[in-house]
Design goal:
By secondary structure, the protein is mainly α. The protein is about 50% helix and about 10% strand. The chain is built from seven helices and six strands, in the order H-H-E-E-H-H-H-E-E-H-E-E-H. A hairpin with a 5-residue loop joins strand 3 (about 105-110) and strand 4 (about 115). The N and C termini lie far apart (about 50 Å). The model has no long low-confidence stretch (mean pLDDT about 90).
Length: about 190
């Protein structure tokens, strides 16, 4: 995992390692700029390798791309629910299907303790398994609920809410928060109230 590169991609409010990798994966879809790093197998491979999440020899097929987009969209829906939305039952079902199709990569240290194997993936299936494993670990460590999607519909960028009360709503208050507040202000004054 290339932490410096993943942090650069996130820009603001990065999650702690290794949840940072899932955050970057979720943000491969940039709604604001209409950019999708999973638009083609070649673009996805380039992102995986430059992010240190896969080996240079990884092959990405059309089917790999479809499964990866599906898991990304599922994780985006779950992160949106973390921001105060309703849990999408379809996302829960899709995640269950992904979990059932994969084994989470684990390592064992000399003391017999299990941990996630964060070695760069040699296949897209290994990468998807790693994303599921990181999501599981972050839920156990009570970090998952802090990974949220910005509530600005024009943004929807994943951010890590490090606030004490976990009440963050926007990836950047000075940008998205102000846009929403100004929009509500104009709407109230336009409607006479």
């Amino acid at each position: 995992m290339n932490v410096a590169e993943l942090t650069r991609q996130i820009e603001d409010k990065p999650a702690p390692e290794p949840l940072l990798a899932v955050q970057a994966f979720v943000n491969t879809l940039d709604v604001e700029t209409d950019t999708d790093l999973l638009a083609s197998p070649a673009k996805f491979k380039s992102w995986l390798v430059s992010s240190g999440l896969a080996t240079r020899g990884i092959a990405v097929s059309g089917g790999d791309l479809r499964r990866s987009r599906e898991l990304r969209d599922t994780m985006r829906a779950l992160a949106a629910a973390n921001a105060g939305g309703k849990v999408d039952r379809g996302a829960s079902r899709r995640l269950r299907e992904h979990v059932g199709a994969r084994s989470v990569p684990l390592t064992v240290d000399s003391e017999g303790r299990l941990d996630l194997d964060l070695t760069p993936a040699r296949s897209v299936e290994e990468f998807l398994s790693l994303m599921i494993g990181i999501a599981f670990r972050s839920q156990v460590e009570d970090e998952w609920r802090r990974l949220k999607l910005c509530r600005n519909d024009e943004c929807r960028w994943a951010f890590f809410d490090s606030s004490r009360n976990r009440g963050g709503s926007w990836c950047r208050m000075d940008v998205c928060g102000n846009r929403i507040k100004n929009r509500h202000y104009r709407r109230r004054h336009h409607n006479g109230g």
